[in-house]
Fold:
Amino acid sequence: MHTHNIETRTEAQKIAVALLWLEDMRRQEKWNLTLDEACILMGSVSRNTYKSWVRKAKNNNEVTLSRDTITRLSLLLGIHKALALSAPQGYEFDFFKRPIDHPLFQGKSAKEQILIDSDILFINAVRNHFDARRA
Structure:
């Protein structure tokens, strides 16, 4: 039983770090996400829900998220990692925000297209696209 509590705390800490990462990615020089856009990426949660999660994470309180939301955070982290590893140094954020000439994106940026189609399957397709570019 005690081991389970440690595992739960570890997962909760990972969730908090991921939420704070997304909040940091909202900055203009990074992914330039509005509060509403961050809410869409998290599965169209309300502003109050998102702000509550971030507040809890900042205060080192446990944040409980659905499996869907955890998956979304994981996929977004994967997209960021793939871009960081494949884009020229200093352009990893730009690649998320600029139009991409590929059928998956229909001439829009990854950011724009994910906000239009925020389904987990589509976000996963975007991650796979950028992962494939690394290879």
